[in-house]
Amino acid sequence: MSPPVVLTIAGSDSGGGAGIQADLKTIEAGGAFGTSAITSVTAQNTRGVHGSHLLPIEEIEAQIDAVLEDFDVAAVKTGMLATEGVIETVRKYADRLPNLVVDPVMVAASGDRLLEPDAEAAYEELIAESTLVTPNADEAAVLTGVDPDDEGEAREVGERLVEMGADAALVKGGHIPIPEVTDVLVTDDGIRTIRHPRVDTEATHGSGCTLSSAIATRLAHGDDLPAAVESGIDLLSRAIRYNLDVGDGPGAVHHMVETRDRAAREGTAETVEGVVRALVERDVTPVVDEAGLAVVGATPYAEGEHDVAAVEGRIAKTLSGLRPNRGVRFGASSRVAEMLLDAREERPVLSFACRCRYGSRVAAALDELDWPTLTLGHDADLTRVEGAFGTKTVALVDLRTNSTVVFAERAATLRERVVTLAEAVE
């Protein structure tokens, strides 16, 4: 194995959610080898920064020298630099720091200041040496004098940062008060806007560190800048959605979320295959119509249909009994996968679902079983179950498609529920 090497120059977070700790977790999760030069040691947790100790400049230089002398560094990211002296020190190394991503850390997510006021002006020269600078709205206001409140002002900030000499600027939209998180990437070639849903959580500790590290890691792998940025934003969006409930504060982002999810894909597909075999063996024909039976399973940190395994072509009735048309693959289902993902917005523990038929006999069986059921009428405007799915809902009846979707946390539970429904219909 010969992974690309990424160097992070940043402060240490004893709480593990941000700083050097977050950087190294993210770099390793992205398939690169993480090296570091620590600028400051902070006493920090999910509730705030309780103390900070700046390392002597010569010790910071010694760390950078040690890494550069021994490793073929492919990308570098900076985080907490704290003082004008440290910023100037890093700038002196700039010609030896490829794919330099500058995260101009000034204030922690908790609101604690991480940069001396006198050091703010020093960032301009370092930004001029950067491949990419990644300010949030507050940092953008300090660096450019423009406090972005909308997409247009974010573009203006990015353009000013590129005028300072940065190859590109990513103005992060997390702190900009608009409904969707809107990140704006400005380069000499143009402007690219990346939008994604805003997650209602305060567990964003380490978000800036994670994003800049993820981008640097993709650059180290050879991705072009727009692709690296989009990949980093996708990772951060999922890391915030599936944040970690640790500490007494708001929590931290999930740095390893994509790695954990990738690791679960094969097992998820095999589990769906097992459910399919069991339903075929138990012959659940009474709940199968001409559209067939659809069985789906989501990975633990699923974000879209591409993270949901399903029977391609569904399970159909044949003269010799039930048979799956094809094998199981990710992205093979759209409607049932979407319903499962929407249900997970209310109950994240749900992982499996099965689409069955609906009719008078199924309706009677559902009444007999007394399952908590959500019904979408013929004229329902709802195309999503998000917001309407109860904490105990077992099944969703969609009168528009004459279908019943059964949900479960575990594969075994889904199998038994579908079998039970089929037996009640007979």
Biggest sheet strand line-up: 14-11-10-15-18-17-16
Order of helices and strands: EHEEHEHEHEHHEEEHHHEEEEEHEHEEEH
**In the CATH hierarchy, what is the architecture of the largest domain at level 2?**
3-Layer(aba) Sandwich
Structural class: alpha/beta
Compute the number of strand runs: 18
Strand fraction equals 15-25%
| Total DSSP helices | 12
CATH topology of the largest domain: UDP-N-acetylmuramoyl-L-alanine:D-glutamate ligase
Q: Bin the helical content.
A: 25-40%
CATH superfamily label of the largest domain: Ribokinase
CATH class of the largest domain: Alpha Beta
In the predicted model, the low-confidence regions spanning at least 5 consecutive residues are: none
List the domain count as a whole number.
Answer: 2
Taking the sheet with the most strands, its summary is:
7 strands, mixed
Distance between the termini: 58 Å
Shape: elongated
Rg computed from alpha carbons, rounded to a whole number of angstroms: 26 Å
Domain Pyridoxamine kinase/Phosphomethylpyrimidine kinase: 13-254
GO molecular function, one term: phosphomethylpyrimidine kinase activity
Pfam families: Phos_pyr_kin, ThiN
InterPro entries: Aldolase_II/adducin_N_sf, HMP/HMP-P_kinase_dom, PM/HMP-P_kinase-1, Ribokinase-like, ThiN
